[in-house]
Each structure stands twice: as structure tokens, then as C-alpha cells.
Design goal:
This protein is α+β, with helices and mostly antiparallel strands. It contains 4 helices and 6 strands; from the N terminus they run E-H-H-E-H-H-E-E-E-E. The protein has a 4-stranded antiparallel β-sheet, with no helix packed on it. The protein has a two-stranded antiparallel sheet with strand order 1-2.
């Protein structure tokens, strides 16, 4: 299984900047909608010089994507923004957990295995996440005690 040892991110997401056209293409949200969302203070572009194209951070792109996702699920704009911001609050917790627990990933065509490490401090069982096509599940494996 492959494990990345570095605690440093592969990409500094603060340096990922997208023009309004790119944001429209990636998210499917029109420029008109984006400007309206800005007026309502749901999103904000990066500060720019007068006369330059609107630009958005990766963080804002992610927020726009999730607002649009909730809108297509039938939520009102206000509810979609609230749900997207709630999801946004969960991301650091998920990142922390995965960063601490992820021991490796073994990818194959038929079945991929994510090693989440030991179930608890007793270190007698190991937890795996299994991905088979679009089916996912956990597997807890008892470890043989060494003599």
C-alpha cells in the first residue's frame, strides 16, 4: 500500500485562482448568478484592480460548486448556501481524521483497499475501507498475535 509521509499539502490551494469564465465552466453557474450571489454576500471574489476580470479562490470555487449542487437537489438559494457552509465547516475535521488515520491505499481494477490502521489502542484489529465499483464498505480484520 502507498502512504504519503509528508504532512505538507501537495498543492497550496491558496495559490489556485480561477477566472469567472473558468468558474462558470467548472460549476455550471452563470456569470449573472455569480454576481447576484456576490451582491447577496454569499460569495466574494478575490480583491482585484479596477477593470480586471473577476477571480475566485479555490475555497470560493469549492463553495460555489456545493451551493450549485444543493440547488440542483431542490433547495432554495438560502438553504443551499447554509448547507454548503455547514459542509465547509466539516471539511477540516474530515481532513484531520483522514490525515491521522490513513495508512495507505491499494488500487486495482476490481477492488481497491484503503487502510485506516488499527481499530483501537489494543492493536488487535485493522480497519479497511473497500471500494468495488460503486459499492463501498468497511472490513475489520483480526490480526494474528505474534509469539
Amino acid at each position: 500500500m502507498t502512504k504519503e509521509n509528508s504532512n505538507e499539502p501537495l498543492i497550496d490551494s491558496n495559490k489556485l485562482i480561477f477566472g469567472i469564465g473558468q468558474v462558470q465552466q467548472i460549476t455550471g453557474v452563470s456569470g449573472r448568478q455569480l454576481r447576484y450571489w456576490e451582491e447577496q454576500h454569499y460569495i466574494a471574489p478575490i480583491e482585484q484592480q479596477k477593470g480586471t476580470q473577476r477571480q475566485y479562490s479555490f475555497h470560493t470555487l469549492f463553495l460555489i460548486f456545493h451551493i450549485q449542487r444543493y440547488l440542483t437537489q431542490g433547495f432554495t438559494l438560502q438553504a443551499a448556501v447554509e448547507k454548503a457552509k455547514e459542509f465547509e465547516k466539516q471539511m477540516p475535521v474530515l481532513r484531520t481524521f483522514i490525515k491521522a488515520q490513513l495508512q495507505g491505499v491499494d488500487v486495482s481494477n476490481e477492488r481497491s483497499v484503503i487502510d485506516f490502521g488499527f481499530k483501537n489502542d489494543e492493536r488487535k484489529q485493522r480497519v479497511y475501507g473497500i471500494v468495488e465499483g460503486d459499492k463501498t464498505y468497511f472490513k475489520v480484520e483480526d490480526l494474528k498475535e505474534s509469539k
